[in-house]
Amino acid sequence: MRISEQKIEEIRNSSNIVDVISGYVQLKKRGKNFVGLCPFHQEKTPSFTVSEDKQIFHCFGCGAGGNAFKFLMDYKNISFVESVEEIAEQLGIKINYDQTPFNQQQDELEAFYEINILAARFFSDNLLKSSDGEDAREYLKQRNIKVQTQRLFGIGYAPYGWDNFLLLAKENQIDLIKTKHLGLIDTNERGEYYDKFRGRIIFPIFSPNGRVIAFGGRIMEKREDTAKYLNSPESKIYSKRKSLYGLFHSKDEIRKLDRAILVEGYMDLVSLFQAGIKNVVASSGTSLTEEQVQLLSRFTKNIIILFDADPAGQKAALRSIEILLKQDFEVKVITLPQGEDPDSFINTNGKEKFDELVLKSMNFIEYQTSQFSKQGLFEDSATATQAIRDIVSTIALVSDELKRSIILKTVAKKFNLREKLIETELNNILEQQKNRNNNSSQRQSLKNTSIKEQLPSISNTLESNPYEKELVRLLYGGNEEIVEYILEKTGYNSFTNPRFQKLVQIVSEGHSESHISPSYLLDKIEDDELKNFVFKLTMTDESISKKWDDFSFSGKIEKDTIDYARETVNNFLIYQIERQIKINNKIIENSKDEKLHIELLIQNKDLQEEKKTITNSSNKN
Q1: pLDDT in tens, 309-367
Q2: pTM
Q3: 264 to each of 116, 269, 316, 358, how far by Cα in Å?
Q4: Distance (Å, rounded) from C-alpha 406 to C-alpha 446?
Q5: What's the per-residue H, E or C state across 286-320?
Q6: Which of 162, 396, 408, 588 is the most exposed place for a label (fewest CB within 10 A)?
Q7: How many whole angstroms separate alpha carbon 318 and alpha carbon 331?
Q8: Strand ranges across the sheet with 229-231
């Protein structure tokens, strides 16, 4: 069952975000907005802002934001569908659920998400409601996972049998090829479909904005012929390298504390979260990847690694340190008692003892040194020399020179070595890194043989268009006349900033379907960092670039009017023209191709004429 986009839009347009949020937060009018104390983090001065005009909210303290649906989802820990249903009930709007099968016009990605929602509900219902789920319920009870926690994380159960989910998919006329692509079903040697997940506890994997993108299945008892974990394959909506289990549930707490705890497994995360340690994410049992670190860096640059106490877990911790340092993270490590993992430790010792471990967490140098010491590497001069070199190599990954110098002093003191000696070793490693990078760059440049490719990257040395940001702000203001004018005169391909390109593309696609409300458009931004940027941009009365006065022809114009939009578009286009002329002149300066010179001079003349036309039209207005 699905709620149609038309019905969701009707509910969105009929509701008032101020009325919805006022039921949970005391709001006061301030200017054209409403403010109150943020319900998502502790604060004494109100930074939680609600815009009635744009039908969105944003907290300038913790970064939380969204529309009325998102507020209820975050405040009550409910699904998107449940939030739509709740607001519809408040408004007295009856929802007719869409029972129709998928059709060819339906967006393919949305079809994949819908299949995963159906599967997630199937697994959850089997765990919570069916007689088949009795063993699974007992297993989770023994693991101390409460029903409330099971509901929060959508934990489910895939019953034994070869066609339980397959029959449900067929009943709902689901595309079986798409279902197989997601790894929910597979085919045998006779080409017959069967359920992939059988007799397993199921952990749905969510995207950072709360969509089910994959599943992880765990057996309840050890079997020699069966893998402990079965995970969804890579798909059009899921990349294991780019996903962190639990991030959707923990991101607000990570922002609030400005620190994340990294664990390996699903149960580790769920147990810690249930115990009140909510700033935790899991790498899902795989080695930490650069993409996962980039994702996490949107929320914090401080991390504590908490892996199993066994050799495999400690080895994984050392690998993770290197990746984190390369991306400028502050890294600490918790060492658990031998034989423990995060799940067992929190269940045996509780939150208070765990908090003590956090306070005792070691910095990465202390941890690496302790691991080498346990391996006996400092007992022999040859292995000790290599171990210290490895430690210095890790220090070389720190980009902050001052921080690197302080760590270097600590290492020299710890091993009773001359600081200059360690510094020389560090400089040698840094020089080797520099040479490797230079050699790589030289090899790359040899591949580029054409005249134009040998020229410097001119466009990157010039300033980006200062009016792009203001046009994005206007596009997310919800004024139909302004949106139509900007899209008609520009288009997302004319923006040089890739982030702005993406944001303008979202508006363009929304406009083509007659959806330009900020509340709707923000829902379409999947990147949390971009979404947060738009919140800040649209909820504050920022002035645009100081260069505005230099380019303004008509003096001061009231903001957010069609005249203001025209003026901004004209300045945007003129800046583009002048930028292209500069690029052409640089190419002429660096190239000896006379034919190319002539072509670019003619182009510059045409550009000057175009600029003159825009200037004249602006003066008339």
Answers
A1: 888 888 888 889 988 998 889 999 998 988 889 999 999 999 999 999 999 999 888 88
A2: 0.58
A3: 24, 8, 9, 17
A4: 40
A5: CCCCHHHHHHHCCCCCEEEECCCCCHHHHHHHHHH
A6: 162
A7: 11
A8: 156-158, 200-206, 212-218, 229-231
